[in-house]
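Lab notebook, bench 4. The sequencing result for the construct came back, and we need a structural model before the next group meeting so we can plan mutations. Quick request posted to the team channel:

Model the 3D structure of this chain.
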Amino acid sequence: MDTAPFLQRLNGVVAEVIAPSAAEVDQHAQFPRSNLDALAKAGLLGLISAKEVGGLGEDTRAAALVVEKIAEACGSTAMVVCMHYCATAVLEKFGPTEVRKAIAAGRHVSTLAFSEAGSRSHFWAPLGTATRGGENVLLDSRKSFVTSAGRADSYVWSSRPLDADGPMTLWYVPAGSDGLTVAGVFDGLGLRGNASSAMTATGLVVTESAMLGGDGQGLDIALEAVLPTFLVLNAAFSTGLMQSLIAAAGTHLSQNRLVHLDQSLAEQPEQRREYARLLTLVDAASLFLDDTLTALAAGRPDAMLRVLQVKAVAAETASEVADGVMRLCGGSAFRKEQGIERRFRDSLAARVMAPTTEALHDFVGRAAFGQPLL
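Done. Here's the predicted structure in token form:
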């Protein structure tokens, strides 16, 4: 994978465009449009789009690598790309050909619109409805958080089924649809540039052809296509944050000295031991992600168990590592120019994205005992 043809382009975009803009994106809660434009120009927004529609045709491992590398520089950009790939995974299977071609060409950014007010992190239990209105369908929903809200070109939208049994149905909703509104501007603790805001659909009109997959089959699609992609890429996001945090800690310990002892901080046993502990946590989480990707690619029997575990492992580890690096680097970590406190905040924001660690632990327990996930 290190010799993948897109990797050089990715590294160039990260170094020349994304990394220099990361602090400003965070400070001003600025949606990273220029970063997305650069990724589009490099062909990376069409990374997992099929070659037949002009995409690169890469797999989940490649997507994880892209998200991880971007997260090392800018968490907000990485999360926007993560959610774009999650939506693309659905649209590649069920979306209109012209939309798939636009995504492959880098002209179209999509995202998921699952979480709803009233159901909290239970994305599998939407409260929003789809009802018939003449020859069309009317969508009415209150989404609690949507990444790239008001900035994406389309949304993979969930609702209760139109007619069929089942917990939910998925829809392709273009941006700018009548009845689609964004409730305010995001001003939160972390991931400040990913435009995560509530959205409301009020009598939003779509045709029945906008349905993605069969009526009532949305949960099956989510579990088969969306959930594995999201959990793995979210873990890759956390891994990227950790890699940048541990690198910053290493630089701090190497470059700062105790003058009266004429020694670097890295030569002090207490700091050295703590750095080693944090480094071991980072490496363990990275290896768990790699094993999860290997299990998926090989179709191993434990693949789904690993998928259910990987976000919880990476998110909780990233939170612990971020807190540890803040402590290890002391007062300098609290200065914004270091970028450490920004990554600390981003790690916390990613940690609470649904499904939460608590929900995932329940899923893992159910899977371990052979019980239904839901």
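The chain has three domains: 7-108, 113-216, 219-368.
Will bring this to the meeting.
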